[in-house]
Amino acid sequence: MQIEVVKSKIHRVRVTGADLNYIGSITIDEDLMDAANIIQGEKVQIVNNNNGERLETYAIPGPRGSGELTLNGAAARKVAVGDILILITYAHMPIEEARNFNPALVFPDEATNLLK
């Protein structure tokens, strides 16, 4: 049996931009992506703590050390600059493997989005 489990989470990161005229996706500082084991093009669930919105899109890397977190395309309508988000990715694995799996949990500085 395969189950879906949390693979990674970036907890309480601040929106730095919302670009409605972009094709789509979420731009994430590449340092945060690396720390959370998120790869380019990976599906990301976005939970907005400010308004309760939940959506899914895919990750694209932003400049390292920039703290950038920009929602692009239609997703830009679901956030405001300054909103606090939780980003979650999931993986499918056998239940036996899932019992011992440890997700990558990242808690950046909420003011700057930089790694502590």
Automatic annotation (TrEMBL):
Its EC number is 4.1.1.11. The keyword Cytoplasm applies. Is synthesized initially as an inactive proenzyme, which is activated by self-cleavage at a specific serine bond to produce a beta-subunit with a hydroxyl group at its C-terminus and an alpha-subunit with a pyruvoyl group at its N-terminus. Substrate binds at T57, G73, A74, A75. It is found in: Cytoplasm. The keyword Cytoplasm applies. Gene3D superfamilies: 2.40.40.20. It comes from the Bacteria. InterPro entries: Asp_de-COase-like_dom_sf (IPR009010), Asp_decarbox (IPR003190). It holds the Pfam family Asp_decarbox. The active site is at S25, Y58. One of its GO terms (biological process) is pantothenate biosynthetic process. Pathway: Cofactor biosynthesis; (R)-pantothenate biosynthesis; beta-alanine from L-aspartate: step 1/1. Keywords: Autocatalytic cleavage, Cytoplasm, Decarboxylase, Lyase, Pantothenate biosynthesis, Pyruvate, Schiff base, Zymogen. The modification Pyruvic acid (Ser) is found at S25. GO terms for cellular component: cytosol. GO terms for molecular function: aspartate 1-decarboxylase activity. Its main location: cytoplasm. Belongs to the PanD family. Catalyzes the pyruvoyl-dependent decarboxylation of aspartate to produce beta-alanine. PANTHER family: ASPARTATE 1-DECARBOXYLASE (PTHR21012:SF0). Heterooctamer of four alpha and four beta subunits. This is Aspartate 1-decarboxylase. It comes from Robiginitalea myxolifaciens. The gene is panD.
